[in-house]
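Narrative of accomplishments. A recurring question from our advisory board has been how the design workflow behaves on a single, concrete structure rather than in aggregate. To address it, we present the structure tokens for one chain from the evaluation set, followed by the sequence designed for it. No filtering or post-editing was applied between the two.
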């Protein structure tokens, strides 16, 4: 234990070209956490230090456009020394970041970032890796980062282009999923008991959260054929385009949606009425986009109309489930709602033509109503 404490206290961290705004707080934070910081202004100064002194961790900053030769030189030093390697970037393109990832850093951080977060990342790496003297001189096998900086699609592309093997762990809102890639091929995806295709699609759409990429072989039976992966990626691109086009106007893709009861006098088309009924609090926007409810641009516009009128809400994550009996009664009522509200031109003219609905009473469209309230609503509707 004493030897371990000594090793931690002697962990030398060399920073090269770290932005000026981070220098003082980073040096102070490193010393307070038991590191020995050596912060150097540029790569020319660093060459003599790196050649003559053992280094446990290296923090490097690469400006855009990326200097590929400089990255390769640092990667070679890391390979020979066994040092932990944390990379800082700012405004780098996807191709630049992929080039860095191919050199297998332990962590890649997109600026802006606080000195405290950098120290915390180095503490985690120190706990995982130990001093450089006890490690084999080889490229790092694990690194992590934010999905805002590197999406799951980018990570899959990285492994595919390099024909690499590894497990991608993604975490978002207390959920954790896994994507297994073997020699550049996605062979399985796991998330909450979903099918591999659905699991992969949902994780691809996460834009908030963290990832961890673990290089190395694994034992896993293939559950995803190449054709299935290609179809899933194509569907992801389609859905991603919709989500990007609509921007902040759309609700969260994976939170369940429920229709909001219109105010008296709210005018709705028959299609808006039908879609409002379909928002039963059990399905998310992603469900609606993939199960055919929002099958084309026309129905997307109908959905947009309901959003504009404030008639779509997210079901709160902590909302308690209503008793099964009440939910069943409401489900039957909502299913019958379009026919109850239908108005014909006249009783004897072959069914009449559909006209625009006008809600004159309060229409229940939320889970958890009591049986007596449901009966009262039904009676009110039948009287209209």
């Amino acid at each position: 234990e004493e030897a371990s404490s000594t090793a931690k206290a002697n962990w030398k961290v060399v920073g090269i070209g770290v932005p000026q705004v981070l220098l003082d707080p980073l040096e102070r934070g490193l010393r307070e956490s038991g590191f020995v910081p050596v912060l150097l202004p540029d790569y020319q100064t660093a060459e003599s230090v790196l050649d003559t002194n053992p280094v446990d961790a290296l923090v490097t900053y690469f400006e855009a456009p990326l200097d590929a030769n400089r990255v390769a030189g640092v990667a070679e030093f890391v390979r020979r020394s066994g040092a932990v390697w944390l990379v800082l970037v700012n405004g780098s393109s996807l191709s630049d970041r992929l080039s860095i990832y191919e050199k297998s850093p332990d962590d890649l951080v997109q600026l802006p970032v606080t000195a405290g977060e950098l120290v915390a990342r180095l503490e985690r790496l120190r706990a995982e890796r130990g001093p450089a003297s006890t490690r084999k001189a080889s490229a790092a096998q694990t690194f992590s980062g934010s999905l805002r900086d590197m999406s799951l699609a980018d990570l899959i592309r990285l492994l595919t282009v390099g024909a690499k093997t590894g497990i991608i762990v993604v975490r978002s809102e207390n959920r954790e999923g896994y994507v297994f890639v073997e020699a550049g091929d996605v062979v399985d995806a796991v998330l909450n008991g979903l099918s591999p295709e659905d699991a992969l699609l949902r994780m691809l759409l996460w834009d908030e959260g963290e990832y961890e990429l673990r290089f190395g072989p694994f034992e896993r039976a293939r559950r995803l054929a190449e054709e299935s992966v290609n179809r899933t990626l194509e569907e992801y691109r389609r859905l991603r385009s919709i989500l990007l086009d609509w921007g902040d106007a759309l609700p969260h893709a994976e939170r369940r949606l429920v229709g909001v009861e219109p105010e008296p006098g709210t005018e709705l088309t028959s299609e808006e009425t039908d879609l409002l009924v379909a928002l039963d609090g059990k399905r998310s926007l992603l469900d609606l986009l993939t199960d055919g409810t929002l099958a084309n641009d026309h129905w997307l516009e109908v959905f947009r109309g309901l959003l504009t009128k404030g008639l779509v809400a997210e079901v709160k994550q902590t909302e308690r489930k209503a008793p099964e009996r009440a939910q069943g009664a409401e489900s039957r009522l909502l299913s019958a709602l379009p026919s109850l509200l239908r108005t014909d031109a006249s009783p004897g003219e072959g069914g009449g033509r559909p006209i625009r609905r006008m809600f004159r009473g309060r229409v229940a469209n939320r889970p958890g109503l009591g049986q007596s309230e449901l009966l009262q609503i039904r009676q009110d509707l039948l009287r209209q």
